[in-house]
Design goal:
Shape: elongated
Largest sheet: 5 strands, mixed
Distance between the termini: 50 Å
Helix content: 55-70%
Order of helices and strands: HHHHHHHHHEHEEHEE
Radius of gyration: 32 Å
């Protein structure tokens, strides 16, 4: 009986909040009429975008209320209402999400009154179910109706507030446009970095190497000691140039990924991080391997996360978890440091997000003050 009462109380809270929102929607008719009149007459046409934004907030609050009851999030798919008045009007009228919200609000005027049924159900439920449970030992019958009523209200709201396929497609196009622009910008920045590293590093050392070899050739016949010294310097320059070239190559695609695979590369990375890193893998030893671009993205994410942990966390331990799922590769890096990560403080997280977004992946950072810091990355791929 206690569990029944708790569930009925929870359903009652949901229904009362829904009733309050329905009452607010009834009052909102006045705003809608004013906005419609102003739009038709042209005097208050500027009210239309603001009214649409207000409707979005109301619908968003209803989505969150419904999700708290059902446990399933209802996605939003809106076009941004920005720019000059003409563009804001065009977006407000043409956005499929506006029609979805208006349709829900119109239906809510009709089914919002169902929540008043909670008033007679409580006394009837306490009486009927008290007798059934206390005297007859049977299951409750009336109070569970409150939960079913809340399910019915939440089901209708979910069906009406779910974005249309057109709205979801428009949002997807916007996301892909943004990630494509980021990928192009990241690619350009990467090319400039490679060019700068080659110009300032390996190229400069090769020029110095060429000059020393030329000087050694001139001095070989007259001053063998100087020639030997110049050749020794040239050998040092050659080794330094090779080191610079290896550094540039590692920045493009680490050779260790090709030689040892992602698991071996991550273990080598963990061994050289300066931290005590635990690496756990789940089914990554199985064939086939993830695509090269996915492995490279995962490697750079882990490298950046471990570098940040060593620099800023204050902890000497970290954990890396690589997991293979049906739809992609999951990466999780955790440290027990001080937390409070600020993405704008040069931690490299924005670059990490851009690299992952270019592959249509997601990055989630959890870093409360006091720790721990957890970076969770999902990279979709086909195995």
């Amino acid at each position: 009986m206690r569990a029944t009462l708790r569930q009925a109380a929870r359903a009652t809270v949901h229904l009362f909040l829904a009733a309050a929102m329905a009452f607010g929607s009834y009052l909102f008719i006045t705003v809608l009429l004013i906005a419609a009149t102003g739009t038709v007459t042209g005097v208050g046409i500027w009210l239309l975008p603001e009214t649409v934004l207000l409707i979005r907030r109301i619908a968003g609050a209803k989505r969150r209320l419904t999700a708290s009851w059902t446990g399933r999030e209802i996605p939003e798919a809106y076009q941004a209402v920005t720019g000059p008045l003409r563009e804001r009007l065009r977006t407000s009228v043409g956005d499929p999400g506006t029609l979805t919200d208006l349709r829900w609000m119109g239906a809510y005027y009709a089914y919002g009154w169902l929540t008043v049924l909670v008033l007679p159900l409580w006394p009837a439920g306490l009486l009927v179910d008290g007798v059934r449970r206390g005297l007859l030992g049977r299951e409750a019958m009336a109070l569970p109706l409150l939960g079913r009523l809340a399910d019915l209200e939440a089901g209708w709201s979910t069906a009406l507030l779910r974005p249309s396929p057109e709205a979801l497609l428009a949002r997807r196009v916007e996301q892909l446009t943004a990630t494509r622009a980021d990928a192009v910008a990241t690619h350009g920045a990467e090319l400039r970095r490679i060019e700068r590293d080659l110009h300032d590093g390996a190229q400069a050392r090769l020029v110095a190497l060429s000059m020393r070899i030329g000087l050694a050739g001139r001095a070989y016949g007259t001053d063998p000691a100087t020639a030997r010294r110049l050749l020794s310097d040239a050998q040092d320059q050659a080794e330094a140039a090779l080191t610079e070239l290896r550094h540039v190559v590692r920045g493009i695609h680490p050779p260790i990924l090709t030689d040892r695979g992602l698991v071996g590369a991550v273990r080598a990375l963990a061994g050289g991080s300066g931290l005590l890193v635990t690496v756990r893998t789940d089914r990554l030893a199985e064939e086939p391997r993830a695509p090269a671009a996915v492995e490279a993205a995962a490697y750079f994410v882990i490298a950046e996360a471990l570098t940040n942990a060593a620099k800023y966390s204050g902890s000497d331990r970290a954990e890396v978890v690589l997991a293979r799922s049906r739809t992609g590769l999951s990466v999780r890096v955790r440290d027990e440091g001080r937390g409070g990560v600020d993405e704008s403080a040069g931690t490299g997280l924005p670059g990490m997000r851009r690299r992952v977004a270019a592959l249509d992946g997601t990055v989630r950072v959890t870093s409360p003050a006091g720790g721990p810091t957890v970076i969770q990355v999902e990279l979709p791929c086909v195995w």
